Amino acid sequence: MRIIDTHCDALLKLWEKPSRSFFDDPAIEANASRLQAGRVAAQCFAIFVEPFIKSDQKFQAALEQADLFHEKVLQTPNMRWVKSWSDLDSIKDNEVGAILTLEGLDSIGDDLTKLRTLYRLGVLSVGLTWNQANLCADGIGEARGAGLTTLGKEVVQLNNENLVLTDVSHLSVKGFWEVMELADYPIASHSNALSLCDHPRNLNDEQIQTLVKKEGYIGVVFHPLFVTGNEKATISDLITHIDHLCSLGARDHIGFGSDFDGIAVHIDQLEHSGQYDQLINQLLKYYPEEVVKGFAGENFKRMLPK
């Protein structure tokens, strides 16, 4: 069973230490060898610029990560660039599709030319914020909890026009609802259920149901803090989130957004991309094979721009 994973931070690790090998460096949880071992058909690679980077250096950092995507990830054998969503249909069994995404718009400031440049470099999904505020919106960690700015609304419209997904993971609650009004292709690339784990990064039941109504997507995230609220979690704990999402009508809208390489603690036996079989085998004990295939990647493909 082939997997689509909608979020990892391998590019950040490569940017922090460019000498690393993307092929098999054990420090990279979603390296090429592990993606192959885990039967990952497509992996989303996020450009993420750390908050401590000075404002006038943020876009350069984003460009450097995009360059690493092209020069290291795509130059690794059997990695194939997903330039448009239709490319997912022609990924061969021995290939891993590489999708470039953007986590937070801090790097563009108020310059939409920079966003269009990132589209041209391959970005197919855009998260408006990380946890803090930027010129487009407030993140979930911003105390005032404001929504989208005029610029942020322009970004969502640009995403729609360019068949780019708008990602609400990390976005403020008010921002979430404004995106639901504006976005043609909304996703939560890496979020879980708030009613099971009271962490602000998770989605409440109404948000989950609205994403379903909007034909959106929710990638369950493997970070124990978003699964159980502490540093220990099992695959069974993660499946309780999937069960809850299904109970809200989201069965055909669920996928995986591991957050590998962006988390410091891990679910037991789900510590890197090479261990996806552990999750799939557990899911097959509870769900029919066709449903699990949906979780693995078919649900994500169904919601994509046509």
Automatic annotation (TrEMBL):
One Pfam entry name: Peptidase_M19
Enzyme Commission number, as recorded: 3.4.13.19
Keywords: Dipeptidase, Hydrolase, Protease
Protein name (Swiss-Prot/TrEMBL): Dipeptidase
A Gene Ontology molecular function term of the record: dipeptidase activity
SUPFAM superfamilies associated with the record: Metallo-dependent hydrolases (SSF51556)
InterPro entries on file: Metal_Hydrolase, Pept_M19
Keyword Protease included in the entry's annotation: yes
Signal peptide per UniProt: none
Taxonomic placement: Bacteria, Bacillati, Bacillota, Bacilli, Bacillales
Membrane-crossing segments per the record: none
